[in-house]
Design a protein that fits this description.
The protein has helices at 2-6, 52-63, 81-93, 187-194, 246-253, 330-334; strands at 16-20, 25-29, 97-107, 115-125, 128-136, 141-147, 162-172, 175-178, 183-186, 211-212, 214-217, 220-223, 225-229, 232-239, 260-261, 264-265, 269-279, 285-297, 301-312. The chain is of the alpha+beta class. The strands form 4 sheets. Strands 3, 4, 5, 6, 7, 8, 9, 10, 13, 14, 17, 18 and 19 form a 13-stranded antiparallel sheet that branches. A two-stranded antiparallel ribbon has the order 1-2. The radius of gyration is 20 Å and the shape is globular. The termini are far apart. The relative contact order is 0.22.
Length: 336
């Protein structure tokens, strides 16, 4: 019901598979059919999420008044690598205002090689949240803006617990134009359709239950780890491709028309997920990168690869939620 009204899906001989949000990017243009011998099995099992309140309490008790910058967390075994990432995400969202932008790219290795550029943003100003996604190639152009309040009544900016989704007309890979037509969702409907909540800055589920010791990305093995280098923590998360994408798979389905089985669209099946986070000595999030491989079913199973870099805005560069007529200058912001 919602999918046909909200997202403009493009169905041509080359089908776009674009899973885009402020927390994850995946997508490609389907070229030739790929070998499906290694296609993963679908996994609907839920994953046990770590309780962030208990984690923050334990962490504060561990610090116990000491200077956090004097501690080398790469040598501390009290917390896992996912704990440190969740602490950084908590600190990021616990600010009155915060923002991040991302630029991603996806490619196919089929007979027709096409690059899909994907721009996203996430902004929190007090209790107001905003996301934007722009996906651009010579074949597919999609854009959406998401608000947790009625932006058309921006003087009051009263949060009414609904979500407002606007379709845009893409101008180029950095810009889109929006009119005043929108689709309104309840909080429950929004989560059921888009998977990832509007107040979440990342699409993946990050917890110990979804953590692997290692994973393979582009024929290279990566181990989950944390190192301290030049006063920055680099954290590598090798994630279970099924458990970490439970919500993300819904988000991808909100942007495509996949084949159906038993009357329902078939969810993407991820084969590998790798995240790299960069934190300062106080465990503040600086940026993170995503690398993912997955299969999507459209006229048969097709393999997709994507990667993106998410950069946190600092100080006076923290973005304000724009009205419909205001562009975010992603090119300038990203190159700073």
């Amino acid at each position: 019901m919602y999918k046909r009204n909200v997202i403009k899906k493009v169905i041509i001989c080359l089908i776009a598979a674009i899973g885009i949000s402020a927390g994850g990017v995946a997508g490609a243009i389907l070229g030739e059919r790929f070998n499906t011998s290694n296609l993963p099995k679908a996994n609907k099992n839920d994953v046990k999420l770590d309780n962030i309140a208990f984690l923050i309490n334990d962490f504060n008790n561990y610090i116990n008044g000491n200077n956090i910058e004097d501690i080398d967390f790469s040598k501390i075994k009290n917390f896992s690598v996912t704990d440190y990432v969740n602490i950084s995400l908590y600190k990021f969202l616990n600010q009155s205002s915060c923002s991040m932008i991302s630029i991603g790219n996806s490619k196919t290795s089929g007979t027709i090689k096409t690059n899909q550029d994907i721009i996203t943003s996430f902004i929190k100003n007090d209790d107001h949240y905003f996301k934007e996604r722009i996906s651009y190639s010579n074949v597919v152009k999609l854009a959406n803006r998401f608000y947790n309040f009625d932006i058309l009544g921006e003087i009051s900016m009263v949060i009414d617990e609904n979500k407002y989704v606007f379709d845009g007309e893409v101008v180029d890979k950095y810009h889109a134009n929006y009119n005043k037509n929108y689709n309104k969702y309840t909080d429950e409907d929004y989560s059921n359709f888009f998977g990832v909540k509007l107040n979440s800055p990342i699409s993946y589920i990050i917890c110990n239950d979804a953590l692997l010791n290692s994973t393979m990305i582009n024929n290279k093995k990566y181990n989950s780890s944390i190192i301290l280098n030049n006063n920055l923590y680099e954290i590598i998360l090798a994630l279970d491709a099924s458990k970490s994408t439970i919500n993300y798979r819904k988000e991808i389905l909100s942007t495509i028309d996949s084949d159906k089985e038993n009357g329902k669209e078939v969810e993407p099946r991820f084969t590998s997920v790798l995240l790299k986070f960069y934190l300062d000595r106080k465990l503040n999030l600086i940026e993170y990168k995503t690398y993912e491989n997955y299969w999507i079913k459209k006229l048969g199973w097709n393999e997709m690869k994507g990667e993106a870099r998410y950069v946190v805005q600092k100080g006076e560069n923290i973005l304000k939620i724009p009205n419909l007529e205001t562009d975010i200058d992603y090119k300038v912001l990203y190159e700073k």
